[in-house]
Design a protein that fits this description.
CATH architecture of the largest domain: 2-Layer Sandwich
Structural class: alpha+beta
Mean pLDDT: 80
CATH topology of the largest domain: Double Stranded RNA Binding Domain
Low-confidence stretches: 97-101
Number of strands: 12
Number of domains: 2
Largest sheet: 4 strands, mixed
Length: 181
């Protein structure tokens, strides 16, 4: 991951650069797709400010802090981003565990990947099973974005039908609604 460090109204030191890099690298363990980080360190009215902007896939995470010491400011800004990431990971984890919502049980769904070049009986390349939790369309779109996935299968909270929200080639989102026939 590329880490850019900018100093404003402050002399650049290797110790501060090293400390900022260590903190950003520590945050990396919570991110699936880290791409770049920009750290801005500056002094304003005798207060030491640290702004950390971290780009991870389509998401931008930001931590800002100001204290009387630059090292403490860097630590506090990094901790803010770490708390955001832990909270996000916990939300994703909790969404997978829920078995009942409004008295309705989540539906088990199997996902299989096929190889078109193989014979029909040998086409299944990968298979996985998961629970399609009852949720609204807005919640499903949020999950699709948070997981940075091409599709997300869920149980519609209104009619309890299995639905798929997916990312189209043109960048928009599509919805497939399955109805019992």
């Amino acid at each position: 991951m590329q880490v850019n460090i900018t100093f404003r109204h402050l002399e650049s030191t290797e110790a501060l650069k090293s400390h900022a890099r260590v903190k950003v690298e520590h945050i990396q363990r919570y991110i699936d797709q880290p791409s770049e980080a920009h750290v801005v360190l500056y002094v304003e009215n005798l207060e030491h400010h640290a702004d950390i902007n971290l780009k991870a896939g389509p998401f931008l995470l930001r931590g800002r802090a100001k204290t009387g010491d630059m090292y403490s400011s860097i630590d506090a800004a990094a901790e803010k981003i770490e708390r955001q990431l832990k909270k996000h990971k916990e939300k994703l984890k909790n969404h997978k565990v829920v078995e009942r919502v409004n008295g309705h049980r989540a539906v088990d769904v199997r996902h299989e990947v096929f190889d078109a070049a193989r014979a029909p009986s040998d086409r299944v390349v990968k298979s996985s099973t998961f629970q399609a939790k009852p949720m609204t369309l807005d919640e499903a779109i949020l999950q699709l974005e948070l997981l940075n996935s091409m599709f997300f299968v869920f149980q519609n909270a209104k009619d309890h039908a299995i639905n798929v929200v997916y990312r189209r080639d043109d960048g928009n989102l599509g919805l497939i609604e399955a109805r019992a026939g």
